[in-house]
Amino acid sequence: MNKVILFGNLTRDPELKALPSGFNVTSFGMATNRRVKKDEQWTDVPEFHNVVVFGRQAETTAQYLKKGSQALIEGRIQTRSWDSPEKGKQYRTEIVAERVTFGRAGGAGGASAPARNSDAAPQAAPKDDAIDYPEEDINPDDIPF
Question: The CATH number of the domain where 25 resides is what?
Fold first, then answer.
């Protein structure tokens, strides 16, 4: 099974592009943290990921997320390869997002959550078979892995 679940912060603004077929794709970087105990102290070790989103979710993601925003990504790992005249064979491993759930607008560090009124941005990109998650902000300390 190829399944990935990431919770982290965007490292750059999402970049929306249209493919020649007219299909939209958004790409962005995401940083996640892993807590490790080193010399009796807990330390966050960052890991960086490339994420791509297709279709209507690509548009919504580009519209509502920005650098520093928190997001929960569910998807799969994919590795692409191509030949570069300057560097030879190139590889890129990325997360293809099947579902994007928006977290806090300002990112980590105690930033306030977006206002919860009728003018507020939706918290999740629309998807027909989406599971309804609670509307509360996701606390990284509550994730069991």
Answer: 2.40.50.140
Domain-located, residue 117: no
Count of domains observed in the chain = 1
The answer to whether the predicted template modeling score (pTM) of the entire model surpasses 0.85 is no
Taking the C-alpha atoms of residue 115 and residue 102, their distance in angstroms, rounded to an integer, is 13
Tens-digit pLDDT profile for the chain (145 aa)? 999 999 999 999 999 999 888 899 999 999 999 999 888 899 999 999 999 999 999 999 999 999 999 999 999 999 989 898 998 999 999 999 999 999 876 544 433 333 333 344 444 444 444 444 444 445 555 544 3
Q: How far is CA 74 from the centre of its chain?
A: 8
User: Token digits for 116?
Assistant: 């919860």
